[in-house]
Amino acid sequence: MSSGDRSAAAERRSAQRVRVSREDLEGYYPTSDDAGRPDGADVVQHDLTDPTQPDPTQPGPGQRWSTWRSVAKGQRGPEPLPDWVVTRDAAIDTELGILKTGKEADAFLIERAVPAGTDSTPDLTLDQAATRCLLVAKRYRSLEHGQFHRGSEYTEGRTVRRTRDQRAMEDRKSAWGRAVSATQWADAEFIALRTAWEAGAPVPYPVQIDGTEVLMEFVGTEETDDLGRTQPIAAPRLTRVRPSDDLLESYWEQLTYGMSVLARLGFAHGDLSPYNILADGERLVIIDLPQVVDLAANPFSSDVLLRDCRTVCDWFTARGLDVDADALFADLLAQAF
């Protein structure tokens, strides 16, 4: 092939790459010149005469368009949606920082907000439609970069919907098997959160799942300083608080209720401890559910549930509350079966 032919071929390949849009790769994303977007919102046009000024209606560094519309309905949280959940296509996700690092996943704080100057949807006023919320993005690592301890103990008895995926999970040497296994933990946590939240358990609301990323409710508060700056404050883990006697009893009642809801659903948390329980003021919130254990199908389920009971009872006993791990274990088993 002559140099001229090679040059022409390179130009054709370049033209083909140009025709592949971001929408082809990632799904629909609104742009500033979209007149008929799915949410009916018209974005205020940015003045491009001053190139030094960033466009507030377009994602910048550390930002992306809201992924709410890009995932299937089954990958979103249960209905009815809480009124604080932002579902607008015009919303932008801004990464505010990391909340927690772990062996299997890292948790990031995300602000999902509709930029100032964006009109409301036709059927909702701005007061009725949520325009800003804080979320936690829990992003699971691949098997090569994660440290999944006691994995078989948790996953024994689990199945996936497609037999091809089930076979792939059993073959960790294949690329597909590693990919399926990596998403398995995110899927398990999202399903557990959906099921538990619908049943009334004190868990964060699961907003959506996209691959290995689970977006869920941020549990905490926001404080404003003297200069008017708002700072998110995550709820502390139970291990860091020193509740009064009355609040300690309330915490115990809330925790045993949450464990009872899971047991009636046929689940044990699997890794329950004061480090996986948030103390949001006077309420407790149970977190980190990727390793939920099926009490009927998993042969290790009794050992796992007893370990959960002993771990949490040890914490309450050390703070002066008279609780019995064996009695709690027996009660949860009775509710499960």
Features:
single chain, about 325 residues, alpha+beta, Phosphorylase Kinase, domain 1, Transferase(Phosphotransferase), domain 1, six-stranded antiparallel β-sheet, two-stranded antiparallel ribbon, about 30% helix, transferase, kinase, ATP-binding, RIO-type_Ser/Thr_kinase
Q: What would you note in describing this structure?
A:
It is a single chain. The chain has helices at 3-19, 22-26, 151-155, 163-170, 175-198, 245-264, 301-318, 325-336, and strands at residues 63-65, 92-101, 105-113, 132-140, 206-210, 213-217, 220-224, 230-234, 267-268, 277-280, 283-286, 293-294. It contains 8 helices and 12 strands. Strand 2 (92-101) and strand 3 form a beta hairpin. Helices cover 32% and strands 19% of the residues. Helix 4 packs across helix 5, helix 6 (245-264) runs parallel beside helix 8 (325-336) and helix 7 crosses helix 8 (325-336). It is α+β, with helices and mostly antiparallel strands and 337 residues long. It folds into 2 domains: 60-222, Phosphorylase Kinase, domain 1 (2-Layer Sandwich), CATH 3.30.200; 236-336, Transferase(Phosphotransferase), domain 1 (Orthogonal Bundle), CATH 1.10.510. The model is unreliable at 12-48 and 160-169 (pLDDT under 50). The protein has a 6-stranded antiparallel β-sheet, with helices on one face. A two-stranded antiparallel sheet has the order 7-8. Strands 9-12 form a two-stranded antiparallel sheet. Pfam families: RIO1 (PF01163). Residues 1-82 are annotated as: Disordered. It is an enzyme of class 2 (transferase). Keywords: ATP-binding, Kinase, Magnesium, Metal-binding, Nucleotide-binding, Serine/threonine-protein kinase, Transferase.
